[in-house]
Amino acid sequence: ACSDGARPEYTRVEGAAPAVVQDGGATLVVFWATWCPPCREELPGLRALGRDPPVPLSVVTFGEDDDEAPVRAFFGGAPPPELGYRHDVDRRASTAFGVDVLPAAFLVVDGRLVARFSGPRDWSSGGMRRLLAKLAGEGPPSAPVGSRLGVDAPRGDR
Predict the structure, then answer these.
(1) Are 136 and 62 in contact, with CB atoms under 8 Å apart?
(2) Using CA atoms, how far apart are residues 102 and 142, in angstroms rounded to an integer?
(3) Partner residues linked to 61 by β-bridges
(4) Residue 61 above 50 pLDDT?
């Protein structure tokens, strides 16, 4: 098979997604902030993914800045529509998802958590696009009883 580099690292997760994501289809939920250098680094690829996803996929970003003024200054106006931006008031969404590092992303398929990506990613790379398409097409993994958000998957799933 053709490859453009190492397969991106991710963690398989299983469970219902917090209510901030609507059921149906695939959604990539990303937590970021304007003050976070790795978040700014991955933003061009995330925008490209939002404009041209490899499969039907919605991108929703949650801004972790204290208010929206730095976000509007960063973008020179409203955030681009392909980012599906929402301000994470009082960090309610990040708490619901258990975010402990920025940037953090979660793939949700049909209302179920499928994968967690901690740290910056090249969302527009061929490897990442293939991985997202594969994970979105598979639906939620069958997880052993007791598996939780953030628990590493067996090596075969990576």
Answers:
(1) no
(2) 27
(3) 30, 85
(4) yes
